[in-house]
Amino acid sequence: MKIVRKLAGSVIVLVLLVAFFNVISKPPALVRQGGLLDKDQEEVKELEEFKAGNAALENNRFKLSMDGKYGSFTLTDKTSGKVWSSFPEAETRKLPSNNKRYVRSPVFVRYSEGKETVQTYPFKEQGTLSVKREGDAIRMDYNLKKIAVSFSVVLRLKEDGFEMTVPFGSVKEGSQYRLISIEPLPFFEAASENDKGAVVLPDGSGALITFTKDHPRYFNSYSQSIYGGDHAFPSKVLDKTSQIPTENVSPWQQEQVSLPIFGLYKQNQAFLGIVTQGDHDAKINAVPSGIRNIKLYRTDAEFIYRYDDLVYLGDRGEVPLLQSRFIPGDRQVRYILLNEDKAGYVGMAQTYRDYLVQEKGIKRVEEKSVPFQLRLLGGVKQGEVIGTSFVSMTTFEQARTIIDELMKQGIKSLEVTYDGWSKGGVYGSQPRHFPAASQLGGNGELKKLAAYAKDKGVRLFLKTNYVRVDAEESALKKSSDAIRGLNKEYMKSFDPRRTTRQPWGIGYYFLRPDRAYGKYVTSESEHFADVGVQGVQLGNMGSYLYSDPGSSKPLNREDGMKAWTQSLDLLRRTTGASAVDYGFGYVLGHVDRIDDIPLDSSHFLYADRTVPFYQIAIHGLIPYTSSPLNLSDNLQTDFLRAVEYGAMPSYELTYEETSKLQRSWEDNLVSSYYKDWMQISAQTYKRAADALDRVKDMTITGHEQLSPDVYRTIYSDGTQIIVNYGSKPYNAGGVSVPASDYALVAGKEGRG
Description:
Layout: H1 2-25, E1 30-32, E2 35-37, H2 39-42, E3 55-58, E4 62-67, E5 72-77, E6 83-85, H3 89-92, H4 97-104, E7 107-112, E8 117-120, E9 127-134, E10 137-144, E11 149-158, E12 161-166, E13 172-173, E14 178-184, E15 191-192, E16 197-201, E17 207-210, E18 222-225, E19 261-266, E20 269-277, E21 282-287, E22 296-304, E23 308-312, E24 318-322, E25 331-339, H5 345-358, E26 372-377, E27 379-383, E28 388-392, H6 396-408, E29 414-419, H7 442-455, E30 459-465, E31 468-470, H8 478-481, E32 492-496, E33 503-510, H9 513-531, E34 535-539, H10 557-575, E35 578-581, E36 593-595, E37 609-610, H11 613-618, E38 625-628, H12 635-645, E39 648-653, H13 674-695, E40 700-707, E41 710-715, E42 720-724, E43 730-732, E44 735-737, E45 741-745
Parallel strand pairs: 26-29, 26-39, 29-30, 30-34, 34-35, 35-36, 38-39
Antiparallel strand pairs: 1-2, 3-4, 4-5, 5-6, 7-8, 7-14, 9-10, 10-11, 11-12, 11-13, 12-25, 14-22, 15-22, 16-17, 16-19, 17-37, 18-21, 19-20, 20-25, 21-22, 23-24, 27-28, 31-33, 32-33, 40-41, 41-42, 42-45, 43-44
Helix pairs in contact: 6-7, 9-10
């Protein structure tokens, strides 16, 4: 009987469990006014189309026809008959219904309820569209009813294409859903695998995603912030964040988006998109074929209206936070439509150059000759059992010796950039730089060096750091100088270890840009003029752009751009020249030289070729240099890349032997002793100058790959520089190019 009772009890328990799971597995009844609503009734089908009216615009060259059915449009070049479309209708017909709606959507939106970010589009959110003709523009008003987000997109024709604007005053949201971003025209001129052409990425120097059927399956697409990620939001710049900062993981080194551009070319037509407003808070997106099972290549710009981050609050662990307010300002993209010989990455880069000159007013920086680019390290801190000591690597008097030795090697044109010259050296008393380090000779010897350099025809720059400063430096007033994150904590940054990518070292704070300019740069500008230097290199201002969301007076990235360009302009006026490293696009027109310009791309899986888009755009306008060749893993290859891209090679040297740095805070200089590099650097400079001095003021009019290892750069007077990275000689139309070398084919005399 006991066994029977046990079995009966087990059966009853089993029946109750089954009944329980049946109940909880059923969706709850949904209540609406007037009764219950079942699941099938509650689910509202996605819209197939809008019921908006049509509209049209026309100017001397183009006709724009707007179809209110999908919010789509075409632009027709009245001269050539070529047509550009907001989405590829022929390719879209082949897709299943859900992807049809996705591709036909004229805009994507990202929003959050406080946790995850969700991408959506108007058809999915019962969106409405109203199309109005307003003067010389078409205004499209969107209302995504289900998430209570609304905004307008305004189209206006230009003589070379059209302009797309999202007016800030039109952007609204409700109380439940928080708008993150708006991504207009995601499928503009999208290309199929059968098209011949490529997406152009502003990744480093530039990269191409070539259209092809023969490609692996891609799981990720390109989405990178213009001017790099914002270090006020660690989750945007780190691969992994942790409550314990020493366990954070930085990404493997990749290139940044320096220019606010994107584009695509196919057959004999193309478009170049330029983000003309809101570039400081925007991303460039590019999607290869196959993502979401859509066999189309596409690219666009995405406007960010607020950032989110993951922060750690006591025992609560990881908590997602959002900025409470929108980042203000209109957002705008200029679409320039291109035909025939301009329909390629070279023509697109030339078009961007024309935009910089004609519309941004950027003027050419004149150079008499291409100078030898020498960087000197003065001194650096070294950790001791108690406190720190100063390691002197190149005194001001020793710098004169190195200049003399280079001139004995036949170097007639020379620029010197001196780092680690201030109190405490490289990681010293920044953001204050004066007086000069007494161990190097102090202000007196620095003035003598400046006068000596000027007498020899050498332009001397002093390198500064008003951006990322030693967290332990007493000159820093953390409470007013350092930026804070969304959690109100000071944002501390670390250099990553080369192997684990985890933090090491002392840590740094990012200076509020308004304080960097208003307090430190302005107070020191006259000191640079007093010591007699002819230029200032403002370290990190061309490679870091960030906000300050957590302080009592928050700053946006646009504020940072303004402070950096004000700093560059001020020191340019007081000393004669300014320079930066890397060269984010906002510095163009404010600098006389860009150091360490990107000469490579990130080599993402879907990007199959690196191209010199950046260099084509600015060569002959602003001089630029390579990273130091004495720190290269492959000197000859990097030398050839510099010559191919029109960059002057540089060297970073010290008077003392590199072994003195073994226990110091400087771990990048692995070989810098000037006697080891004197002859090699002079020979390399002369070899590069043979080609680059001839074309220094010219524009690049052509660039092509002749074979897997051979590339040709063509300048405006017809001069060709043919670079052979291969192990065998190459014959380029009768021109013999030695292995691992270059050949110069002189053009006609004259300048571009």
